[in-house]
Write a structure and sequence with these properties.
Blueprint (H helix, E strand, L loop, with lengths): L1 E3 L5 E3 L3 E6 L15 E7 L7 H8 L11 E6 L5 H20 L12 H19 L7
Antiparallel strand pairs: 1-2, 3-4, 4-5
Helix pairs in contact: 1-2
């Protein structure tokens, strides 16, 4: 089975190591017998991803990325092992896709003269309203 990142990039499941572990939290008597959580490990450096993808993933400031370049995802949202495996794989694909998106650089803007004038006019008007709230002399 392969994971499709985009039209040009695919990952084989041989590159991804999934192990079943006991899930945390409450779950009754069954929780001690069943290993339904999934621990996914993906080694970026030894993968078949293009160099651009590898570089962008290694530059991520993410708690799921180790110093050795391994992405670790723990999936325990669902009660079944199969759904948790699908969830972990989906989260890995989303992480790889988000790492390759290049953000548009922000161009600083300034308010126009008319906008500045409107702002000062409203401030003056507000000040007049507040000044009329004083005590009335009879």
């Amino acid at each position: 089975m392969v994971l499709i990142i985009n039209d040009a990039v695919v990952l084989s499941e041989d590159e991804i190591e999934c192990t079943a572990i006991c899930s945390q939290g409450s779950g009754g008597q069954n929780v001690n017998k069943v290993s339904s959580a999934i621990h996914l490990r993906f080694d970026i450096l030894s993968s078949t991803l293009p160099d651009f993808y590898k570089q962008r993933l290694l530059e991520l400031q993410d708690k799921r990325l180790t110093k050795d370049g391994i992405i670790i995802i723990k999936a325990q949202r669902f009660r079944t092992q199969e759904k948790n495996r699908e969830d972990a794989l989906l989260r890995l694909v989303e992480l790889i896709r988000s790492a390759t998106l290049i953000q548009k650089s922000r161009r600083p803007t300034r308010p126009s003269k008319a906008a500045k004038a409107r702002r000062t006019d409203s401030k003056i008007l507000r000040g007049k309203v507040k000044s009329l709230r004083g005590k009335v002399d009879v």
